[in-house]
Fold this protein.
Amino acid sequence: MNQNLTKRIVVTGVIAAIYTVLTLILAPISFGPVQFRLSEIMVLLAFVDPLYIIGLTLGCLMSNMLGGFGIMDIVFGSLATFMSCVAMYWTRNTIKNIKASLLVASIWPTVFNGVIIGWMLHVTINVPMFITMIQVALGEFVVVTVIGVPLGRLFAKKYGKYFQRIGLA
């Protein structure tokens, strides 16, 4: 029992740290109305195992604490990531065709981040809300769906034994 709990805590911390470091190293493209937060590719891990949801949410929270747009970004940015991850895992369990469900699941971050972060940026830095929602959604779509899904499938082929239990390999 203790080994399992320790492993879960370590995995959560490592995921949070990787997400945070990637976001902050690439800060010029990770924040703002036009953003390509490459660390968001990692949200696809929530599709594989719900364990990753906490680490991804904590990573987003730490990133937004250190480089975001204040308390609004800390609260609403982290909420958008959490909601995206939960919806992705829910989609995996709802749609029977695993490859189709991955594609559908990859759209959730586009929707949640586009709406929530677009609104938050409108409130915090007074940019046009609708245009900002489109810009954030487009960046999220490119990162998670266009880049992340093929990359995830490539990893599933290369490291198939880790993905066999969910049918991606």
